[in-house]
Amino acid sequence: MDMNNFGERLAVYRQNKNMTQEEFASRMGVTAQAVSKWERGQSLPDIGLINSISNILGIDANEIFGITAKADMTEKDGLFDQKKLLSNICAEPVKLTFGKDIIPAIVEGLKTKLITDKRLQIASLYGILIPRIRIVDDNNLNDKEFQIISYDRVLYREELDLINDSVYTYIMEKLFQICTANYAAIINKHMVKTLIDNLKENYPGVADEVIPEKISYLTVQRVLEGIIMKNQSIHNLIAIIEILEEEVLTKNNNNVNAIVEEILRVINMDQRLTK
């Protein structure tokens, strides 16, 4: 899947529709600056936006991905620049790679809302935020093989017997299942910050002037990891933060394992009382 020319192709298709960056951004529900970065190759749109891009430009996702396009991938062409090199240095929290026979199923599947729906479902059930999923084909894999990777560690690998209409759904179900089971190893400080920022926005006062001012994001991350490793949900984040605050700031308890045990004890006791 050729992503190197994505921005160039996007600009051409947009211009063919006689749309300015501002008009295209407005229809996409993003900023003109975001579109500009896409077209200059400084960033890529979230996978969930590909369907909207295809619909607005009136093209197939195959075209925007350039699956059938051929290019002479030499450094002198300017297609392999430093920004693209740097983007591949950092290991991704979640990456899905697959062989060439699976490409059509993935391209068609990305036109649906399955990833968005699964994210919402997992968040509702377990209170966990699945990060952006990097989805790329890999010529080193067998044609019908796919892998789920986290920070360069292979969490799951499977070779499919056949490719049919349900392949995309099957792969995504497996991906979210694996991510949920291994979430303690996937969660990072950036994801914790996103969770806390959302908590502050929706429930003012719960974590204000506490995180990260008095309790670091890393401490919160370690506590959440501990809860998840005990196969417990972090959905009740408000209670988790309130108990964490009391343990650290009032009781001077800095033992993560002890804090996790206390959080689970209090939450489980509250659940029994409300039944």
Automatic annotation (TrEMBL):
Subcellular location, in the record's words? Answer: Cell membrane
Describe the location of the HTH cro/C1-type domain by residue ranges.
10-64
Q: Which UniProt keywords apply?
A: Cell membrane, DNA-binding, Membrane, Transmembrane, Transmembrane helix
InterPro entries assigned:
Cro/C1-type_HTH, FHIPEP_1, FHIPEP_3, Lambda_DNA-bd_dom_sf, T3SS_FHIPEP
PROSITE patterns given in the database record:
HTH_CROC1
* Biological process annotations from GO: protein secretion
User: What protein is this chain from?
Assistant: Helix-turn-helix domain-containing protein
